[in-house]
Amino acid sequence: VYIQSMGVLPSARGLRIGELLLRSVEDFASAHGYKRLFLSTTPFLSRAIKLYERFGFRRTDAPPHDLFGTPLLTMEKKTPDSK
């Protein structure tokens, strides 16, 4: 499952909404037999990267790619049911 876009309004940050969203996607993926979750993020979104890493995402070996001049790195997480 590829997580296309996720964001939390500044006024709602700190309420663990990002964790709830990620957990919901993971539950969906596991329930439907998907083995991995993927997302792309920019290197300068350090708070988001820390959240993803806390949630078990790791950077892939894929080199960063570019979207309209913005570097993107890819992160991945195996679902709990994957072998």
- Are there runs of 5+ residues with pLDDT below 50, and where? none
Assembly category: single chain
Order of helices and strands: EHEHEEE
- Rg over CA atoms: 13 Å
Corresponding CATH architecture: 3-Layer(aba) Sandwich
Give the CATH level 1 class: Alpha Beta
Number of helices: 2
Helix percentage range: 25-40%
Could you tell me the CATH topology label.
Aminopeptidase
What count of domains describes the coordinates?
1
Overall pLDDT score: 91
What's the number of extended β-strand segments?
5
Written description of the protein model:
The structure is a single chain. The protein has 83 residues and is an alpha+beta fold. It has one domain (2-78): Aminopeptidase, CATH 3.40.630. It has 2 helices and 5 strands, in the order βαβαβββ. Strands 1, 2, 3, 4 and 5 form a 5-stranded mixed sheet that branches. A hairpin with a 2-residue loop joins strand 4 and strand 5. The longest helix is centred in the N-terminal third of the chain and has 15 residues, at 17-31. The radius of gyration is 13 Å and the shape is globular. The mean pLDDT is 91.
Features:
83 residues; alpha+beta; Aminopeptidase; five-stranded mixed sheet; 27% strand; globular
